Amino acid sequence: MAAGLFDVVIVGGGPAGLSAALSLTRARRRVLVFDAGDPRNARAAHMHGVLGHDGLPPGDLRQRGRAEISSYGGGFIDEPVVSARVVPSGFEIFGSRTAVTARQLVVATGLRDELPAVLGLSEQWGRGVLVCPYCDGWERRNDTIGILATGPQGVDQAQQLRQWSSSIVYFPNDLGEPSTKDLCSLELRDIRVERGRVRAVRTRDGRVEAVELLDRVVPVDTIFTSTTMKPRDELLRLLGARTREHRGQSWIAVDADGRTSVTRLWAVGNVIDPRSNVSVSLGAGSLLAGAVNADLTAADIARCEASATPAPPPETAAAR
Fold it and tell me: How many CB atoms sit inside 10 A of residue 28's CB?
């Protein structure tokens, strides 16, 4: 299918990108999705809190979505996009092996999580080391949960998890002593504070067993922490999309529909919003698709009007 001019090329085959592709293919637009096959939730065994799909493996959602999009005529290129440029017709997009052109370009490349530098933490990422209580709190409700703080939000995370488990251990790690106010709030809800630098995460039979400090070992069943979220927005920046500052970090700026500052360039999902879980991304992709299709329709109307405008009569000798 990778030939000719596409109405829309979507870069990113996660929930946001696939949701947009489904709506646009059903609108009879010619759509191509580039999918590098590196989703943020690749390590997760199941999704939770996704209405109608609670407990479904993320890979199954991806497969179902791709099959639905294909059934409406959408196409897929399983390779990363390495570059793009603005051309008169819209955009030229360069994959690692394929080049195509599109009238509109949607970037849904997500983000990557950078974990604290603690031995053994990354090996358990998505299994025994988690970040979202709404995604995984229910399944860990009977665990002793360790909160590995990476910033001031660690106390809030400990307080949130307290409603899922009565056994919460807060590790301030390199943050040092919590404030008097935070200590009081933690103690009031029976959240234990274990001071000292975290050296490693211990596991047994593939499961988290304990947090190892410099001078002692604290048993836990699960660890929740906060990651440093890095949007995969290199393509958007390459094309000149304007940015905004959010909590000390630079993100691509979009309007309510997902438009960037570059004409006909759109962004959706985690690449612009760290709060976009699977459910939010599915909805955002659908809303963006409506706006993209409206832009395409306006362009179609303008093109028809231009071709229907009669040419002015040639000047006559007398008029000259």
Answer: 11
Q: Which residue has the tokens 């593939």?
A: 206
For 309, the 3-state DSSP assignment is coil
Interval 242-286: pLDDT, tens:
999 987 899 999 999 999 999 999 999 999 999 999 999 999 999
* Burial class for 180, CB neighbours closer than 10 Å (0-12, 13-18, 19+): exposed
DSSP 269: G
Judgement on whether residues 186 and 248 belong to the same structural domain of the protein: no
Structure-derived torsion over alpha carbons of residues 134, 136, 141, 143, reported in degrees to the nearest 10: -140
Q: Are 94 and 82 in contact (CB under 8 A)?
A: yes
pTM confidence score: 0.92
CB 31 within 8 A of CB 7: yes
Closest CA to 106 of 42, 39, 14: 14
CB contact at 8 A, 147 and 170: yes
Tokens of 245: 């500052």
Q: How far apart are CA 292 and CA 285, in angstroms?
A: 10
Does the pLDDT at position 317 exceed 60? no
- Nearest partner of 227 among 112, 114, 111, judged by Cα: 114
Distance of CA 44 to CAs 59, 208, 312, Å? 9, 15, 64
Domain that holds residue 298: 5-113+228-302
* Whether 186 and 277 share a structural domain: no
Helix 15-26 with 278-308: angle, nearest 10 deg: 40
Same domain, 150 and 128: yes
Whole-angstrom distance, CA of residue 304 vs CA of residue 316: 29
Tens-place pLDDT, residues 83-112: 999 999 999 999 999 999 999 999 999 999
